[in-house]
Amino acid sequence: MFFFSAKSQTKAVLFDGTIVAGYVDHGAFINCTGPSIKFSKKPYAVLLGLLPSLRIKEDKVAAGAPKNAVLTPNLGFGLTAAFRHIALQVPLYYNPKTAVKNGEWNVGVGLGYKF
Q1: Which of 18, 70, 90, 109 keeps 20 to 30 A from 33, CA to CA?
Q2: What is the rounded CA–CA span in Å between residue 26 and residue 107?
């Protein structure tokens, strides 16, 4: 693989300067790459780590029933690949169990910018 050649680097990073927007579970998300393991070889970079996020999703509930806020903070994890300033992300988010639905992992997709 090209990431394990003599000029590639593998290191732990706290924040990489990547902002991503995308789609998951009938809603949207905006996140940044958080603590992760970064494999890089100019101009490519691949990160595997945590994704502090804002999820944007409106609950579909019966009239008068309580529902969640449209914007909620969330922590996901996943894979982010960057080529120069363009980033592609495959995040995973967990929706916890409720009274009517089991908890489940949801896979999303996002596109972003690497500063």
Answers
A1: 70
A2: 11
